[in-house]
Amino acid sequence: MDTTYEIERSRAPDGTEMVLYKCGKDYIIRADGKILIAGSNITSEIKLAELTCSHIHNKQAPKILICGLGLGHTLQTTLENVPLDARIIVSEIVPAIIRWNREILGISDKKPMNDPRVSVIQGDVFTLLKTSKEKYDAVILDVDNGPGALSLEQNSRLYEDTGLEIIKKVLNKGGALTIWSSEKEEWFEERLKEKGFSIDIHEIPIDSLNRRLYWIYLATPLW
């Protein structure tokens, strides 16, 4: 069995302790002791990007906002599935996670953050969305552990009525909001419908026996 050891710890702007670990070849980020993301389970992050890009594949010069950098796999997969004239904005609130992606994590060998299509903004994504003067063809919401299993309390705003209304306003016609969740949240599905979204729900197996699932919601506004 591989040994897990700590590489570095830091704090989010709200005081949450963020710790980067390595276990074998995989990296793990914990927030106040809870696993935020683990490199051994990246299938759903890859699928999140693939579903998003598939939905907007006919868009000219698509503009995509990725909310939450994690270990960088969603960003890398997005880059692999969009044209050269695409523009990708990544919003990440924790400065250390940005630095870890640039300097430490395995995917940094591909240097997705150095791609000319990518802009990285350090800050609160709720504030970015609320004050945005730009429109996006897709918003990828990979923040925390989804609508219900939150590590950072302030992230709940993104999944509440106000957050969904703000996201709906910044989406171009034909655009989509894709959401990663560690659980199937029926209350959140009803909220999306109440806010005028049509939703497709995707089950993503974590293991070959389907003993555990993650969930992706692809939500499209009903204009």
Overall pLDDT confidence? 91
* Tally of individual domains: 1
What is the share of helical residues?
25-40%
Q: Give the second-level CATH assignment, the architecture.
A: 3-Layer(aba) Sandwich
Class from secondary-structure proportions = alpha/beta
Order of helices and strands: EEEEHEHEHEHEHEHEE
Note the gap between the termini: 52 Å
Describe the protein's topology.
Layout: E1 4-11, E2 17-23, E3 26-31, E4 34-38, H1 43-55, E5 63-67, H2 73-80, E6 87-92, H3 95-103, E7 118-122, H4 125-131, E8 136-141, H5 161-170, E9 171-181, H6 186-194, E10 197-205, E11 213-221
Helix pairs in contact: 1-2
What does this structure look like?
The chain is an alpha/beta fold and 223 residues long. It has one domain: Vaccinia Virus protein VP39 (Rossmann fold). It is 25% helix and 35% strand. The chain contains six helices and eleven strands. The strands form two sheets. The protein has a seven-stranded mixed beta sheet with strand order 7-6-5-8-9-11-10, sandwiched between helices. It has a four-stranded antiparallel beta sheet with strand order 1-2-3-4, with no helix packed on it. β2 (17-23) and β3 (26-31) form a beta hairpin. The longest helix has 13 residues, at 43-55. The N and C termini lie far apart (52 Å).
